[in-house]
Every structure is written in structure tokens, then in C-alpha cells.
Amino acid sequence: MQPSSNNCYDTGLREECGVFGIYDLDGADVSPSIYYGLSALQHRGQESCGIAVSDTSGPKGHVKSYKGLGLVNEVFKESKLEELSGNIGIGHVRYSTTGSTTVENAQPLVLNYLKGSLALAHNGNLVNAMELREQMENTGAIFHTSIDSEIIAYGIARERVHSKTVEEAILRTVKEIRGAYALVIMSPRKLIGVRDPYGLKPLCIGKRDNAWVLASESCALTSIGAEFVRDVAPGEIVTFDKTGNLKSEFMPVDVKKAHCIFEYIYFARLDSKIDNISVYEARIRGGATLAKTYPVDADLVCGVPDSGLASAKGYSEESGIPFGLAFHKNSYVGRTFIKPTQKERESSVKIKLSVLESVVKGKRIVLVDDSIVRGTTISNLITMLRKAGATEVHVRISSPPFLYPCYFGTDVPSNKQLIASSHSTEEIRQQIGADSLGYMPIEELQNMVGDLPICRACFDSHYPMEVPKQDISALLES
Length: 478
Hints:
Elements: E1 18-24, H1 31-40, E2 48-54, E3 63-69, H2 72-75, H3 78-83, E4 88-94, E5 109-113, E6 116-126, H4 129-138, H5 149-160, H6 166-174, E7 179-187, E8 190-195, E9 204-208, E10 211-215, H7 218-223, E11 227-231, E12 236-240, E13 246-250, E14 259-260, H8 262-267, E15 273-274, E16 277-278, H9 279-293, E17 300-303, H10 309-319, E18 327-329, H11 342-352, E19 353-355, H12 357-360, E20 364-369, H13 376-387, E21 392-397, H14 425-432, E22 436-439, E23 454-455, H15 457-460, H16 472-477
Parallel strand pairs: 14-23, 17-20, 20-21, 21-22
Antiparallel strand pairs: 1-4, 1-10, 2-3, 2-4, 5-6, 6-7, 7-8, 8-12, 9-10, 9-11, 12-13, 15-16, 18-19
């Protein structure tokens, strides 16, 4: 998703979103389940959220929807959920990849068109969004948002007019789009899930009694008491209708799979399982690899909450250095990495974390974190540890240095904002004030996920598909 503030595409940070869908064949209202599912996916986006529902036994194509800026529990009060009655529905949490943070850009998107209604929620990024949008506008399309998700929704609606089924319209649309996408789509009588052929974005299937569920992560299934069935396969379109059966078909493409490694390093929740791999165990393995690669004499291994904790435990187990908690986290402050502006990121670090002085005073600390993007956050944490009496701080990072932008929806900014693109490891170590610094060797990255084929383009520029020839921010400034 890539719009700009002065026309349709924004030069801001890319996002990660969460999608959720449920179809209760017994006719029960699903909005409370969507609420809890989105709450479990809140870590994937904190700027806006939305829910769209319909009643499969009511007037065909009548969709009730509500969306707003803020967290799920801020936007949806009990009275609002009661208004959203229906037995089929989808939901979305957003951190903007494209478009400004306005309620117009919140999802799900709901379209009313010749064949009825369509609601869509999207996680991911299209690399040919600007090209497709221009083509559509030249044929009379009028867009109401600045997000590339509307391009997908409009494409499906346009193709549906000439297709026998919505699935056929989706198949025609995905032939035109390039990039990363996990979609949940609600037509008047169907719930549909779509995953891009590379498998870049996660999507899984669950079941609770007589209800089918789709979600970005398995933790959202657990939150509503649903059983995990399986992941949606890369390139698969799954449909649930009134028969209660799962219908599956695949896009007629054969590409090399490229699952986003950043899900396992940072984005996914610790209790999720994605493509048969436990996120927790992947991070434990990452920490163990760091301990083997960068041993150091130290008294305590600590992780940066939350995504650095499991890797720190893995480092501790492999090295034999005790694991401890160096920070208290204020749970009511959001994630610093997905704050919209640098100023907000910097100010929220100190509000979010405070050092446990009695734990670190007089000790040599190994501090494990998932990544260094700009270096500001880790520098602040090292300063806080030293002020609390830590004698040494050795930093270990469970990802390689970020060198290239991501075009597929992960919050990796342009090259000029990536500290590793213009500084050596030693220069970064000096700049952040660490006694030593070790990144995950890129050749060891695969160990986290076994034989799962991964995309690691933000580290080595080997993109799984053709991407813009120059950095997207440069394109937008021209």
C-alpha cells in the first residue's frame, strides 16, 4: 500500500495489518468474536480498525459497518457492537502503509455495485499499485481512499460484473496485481480468504462449532475459542458458504515461495504458529545462534520487551549466562516501531520502558533485541541501563542489518533512514554506545525456520518479484 500526501501516495512508513473473518452457519451474531479476534491482532496495527457484518438470511447485500481511528477497545464500545448484528463478518486493524491516518483509509472497505455488495480487508502491499490505479482512473474509476486495498476491491467488483461467481472475479483480479496480500472478503453469502502466491503474508483457517474463521495469526483463533485447522496455502483461495464446506482453488501461477522472515523475527505474536512453525521456538533458535556466533563474558542476558525476550532466553540457554528481566514495560503504551512519526517513537520509549535498577546494577549485560532500524531506540535503552548502574552493555540483534526497503508491507523505511545502509557495524556500535554489537549473520537466518522458503530482501535485496527500480520514496518525491 503506497499512496502520497500530495497526490495518491504517501511517503510514510510501510505497515503491517491484521485481518479477521468469521461465518457462523448457525446464525449467531459474529461482531463480538471479530472484536476479540482483532484485539488479539492489535500488535499488527494500532492506528485504526473496523468491522463489517451482514446477515446471510436477511436482505442480500445489506452490510453494516463501522470503523474509526484508535485501538479496538477505544473504537468499539458494547453499544456499537450490538448495532453490528449479523452472522458473517470481517475485521481489520491497520498501521498505514499508504495514505494518511484518516478514517476514510480505515478498513474494511465496503463497496456497493451492480452485483450487490463486497467488503474487503487487506494485509500487505502491492508493488504495481500506482500503475493499476492510473489505468483504472483512465477508464473512469473514482477512488475514495488513498490505499492500494481499494484497487483490489475495485478490481474484484469490476471483474464480478463479467464473472459467474465472486471467486472467478477474484481469480481474474489477482492475475493483474503484484505484491504481498492476505485478504478476507465478504460477499452477501460467502466468506473468502486469499493469500498471495509467494506466501509473503500469513493467513490461517479455524473452526469453532459451526463457524469458520480466517485470521492473520493463530493467536486470534485461540482468543475466540476456535481450533486451528490449517494455514491458507500460498496462492490459495478458500471459500465458505451456506453448505458449511471449505472450497479451495489455486491461482494458476507457479512461483518460488518467499515467506516473510520478519513475521518470526518481530511482527507475529509469541503464541502464534505460522506455516507450521512456532514463533516462540523460532526466536529461541535465533537467540541460540547469536550466542554461538557472538559469545561474550557477561553476568546477565536481558531482552527488549516484547519481541526480544524469547531470543534473549535462547541466548541464555545456549551460553549458560542467566536470563533476567531488565525492564518493566508499561502495557498501556503502544509499540515504538509502529508509531507514525520519529518524534512519537522517541518519546514513547521512555514512557513505555523503565529499568529495574536492582537487576542490572554492577552487572555486565547482554541486551538482545530483534532489529536496529534507525538506532534511536536501542541507544536510549543502553543509556538507561548505564544510568541504572550496568557496567557493560553488549548488544545482540536477532536479524541481519537492514540495508534495503521492503515493498511488501513491513515497516522498513527508505535506505537513507536505515542506519546500517550508511554505517559499518563498528560505527553503529559507537553511535549507540554499546560495548560490543553482533547482528544475526544472514547465512544463519534460515536456521530460525528450518526449510521454510523465506523472503529476506530487506537484508540482501534479493526480492522475490520485480520491484520499483529505485526507492519508493525517491519515486514519490519526483
